[in-house]
Amino acid sequence: MDASAANASTHFVCDSVMDLLLIETVALMSNSGTSTSGTLSTTGLTGDEDREAAYFKLEMLGYRVGMGLTEKATRDRPRFADNLEIVKFICKDFWLAVFNKQIDNLKTNHRGIYVLTDNNFRWFSRMSANSATETAQLAFPHAAFPCGLIRGALSALGVASVVIAEVSNTPQCTFQIKFRT
């Protein structure tokens, strides 16, 4: 096996391990202490509160990972001039490092809100359910980690932000970034 084939198979293994790790992490966070009804669970929280707590934990995990990846990736780069350059870094370099592709679409209203669209979000590509609505509901907890990745990356670059994911048609995922002033 030549070196390029070895690198490709190693990369494929890394991608598979990351996919499985995210699936199990979401399942663990989503099922820890949750109840299937709106009644109190063993943790004393309702099902909705449990889902929010799980989403927050997943988002915070992604935040820390995003910060670390960005600190490493930008260590030898000069500072970015403005927020648009930072978002372009997220769309091109950061997304390429994490997902092996660039963001498919970037839109802005030029007032601090950016919308990033990934038309074939890798972590949603193999999800399916009986209906599109059900698939979107199942995919939503898996969007917490990448929201955290983006927010952590932006934080490492000195920008406070709010990142919201929208999952309407899997495997498409849209991330809305709003900068805090």
UniProtKB/TrEMBL annotation:
It comes from the Eukaryota. One of its GO terms (cellular component) is TRAPP complex. Transmembrane segments: none annotated. GO terms for biological process: endoplasmic reticulum to Golgi vesicle-mediated transport. InterPro entries: NO_sig/Golgi_transp_ligand-bd, TRAPP_component, TRAPPC6/Trs33. PANTHER family: GEO08327P1, TRAFFICKING PROTEIN PARTICLE COMPLEX SUBUNIT 6B. Belongs to the TRAPP small subunits family. BET3 subfamily. This is BET3 family protein.
